[in-house]
Amino acid sequence: MKCWLCVFAGQIKRSLVFFLLSVVTMMLALGCIPKAEVTSRHPAVRVVGSTALLPVARDAAQLMGVTKRAAGVEVFGGGSLTGLQQVAGGWADVALSLVEPPPGEPLYRGLTGKVLGVMPLVLVVHPAVRVDNLSKDDATRIFLGQVKNWAELGGPDIPIVIVNRGKSSGSRQLIKRLVLGGREFTGNARLVNSDFEVRKEVASTPGAIGYLGATYLNGSVKALKYNGIECTIENVANGSYPLYGLARVYTRGKPEGTVQSYSELLLKESFLLEEAKKGLVPLRILKKGPETSQSGVKGR
């Protein structure tokens, strides 16, 4: 009987330990345990935000001598607004965003932002679409769902398939403002979660059109001119190419420790000059254009 009781007690003990571990894991996932307790076991800087800026964030993390998942810096996407919400709520340390926090909302009052540079956005189509340029009016009618076949714009007889981002995307917010004049996209679109997925979906779908950060351009998709202007550093700098957003880094209050080191690296001139080779336009060469006149250059 004593032996049976010992076995039973051992089973109860193991079950209780498993239960407690499950509860702790769930609390960590839900953010119920204070941030300081979590980071004391895993001292990582958590970076969340614009997927257009993910290559920049990852380059900075690698330059600090860490990988994406190693203790030090963790880099995630999710969209600009998701990054701002995560940092404002205390669940992430650094947000990279193509848009400013929504004005007047108390959640974002503690955020401090600085401008890294300019991220151009490019309209891209499947390579089989024999269209090289879209006017603002053409692009607007496409994204509003008013034009449904490329033949209506002088292209092939192929249905237009819109590849769009979710509402947390800073790129979506910029295209909505700069192209659609604040009007909402048609709901008849394929929604994806990142610039990488936009590129993949457009490249594999005949008739597809989408938009992405210049850092994601490659030969798998066809970049379009906008109002007859090609997306180049020179055209963004002189204001003739209007589709871009100011890339910003946000922290909650004054950063310290590794968060401060990472934030300072993102703003370092030598680092930004290297990133310019991949599509991020240096702020210092930008003349006044549509984005700076609408949003202003704040926090620099």
From TrEMBL:
Keywords per UniProt: Lipoprotein, Palmitate, Phosphate transport, Signal, Transport
Q: Which Pfam families match?
A: PBP_like_2 (PF12849)
Keyword Lipoprotein attached? yes
Q: Primary place of residence?
A: membrane
SUPFAM superfamilies xrefs = Periplasmic binding protein-like II (SSF53850)
Q: How does it sit in the membrane?
A: Lipid-anchor
Keyword set includes Mitochondrion = no
In Gene Ontology terms, what is a biological process of this protein?
phosphate ion transport
InterPro entries per UniProt:
PBP_domain, Phosphate_ABC_transporter
Q: Where is the PBP domain?
A: 42-266
Query: Where is it localised?
Result: Cell membrane
Query: What GO CC terms are in its UniProt record?
Result: plasma membrane
Q: How does it assemble?
A: The complex is composed of two ATP-binding proteins (PstB), two transmembrane proteins (PstC and PstA) and a solute-binding protein (PstS).
- What exactly does this protein do? Part of the ABC transporter complex PstSACB involved in phosphate import.
Q: What is this protein called?
A: Phosphate transport system substrate-binding protein
Organism per entry: Thermodesulfitimonas autotrophica
What lineage is on file?
Bacteria, Bacillati, Bacillota, Clostridia, Thermoanaerobacterales
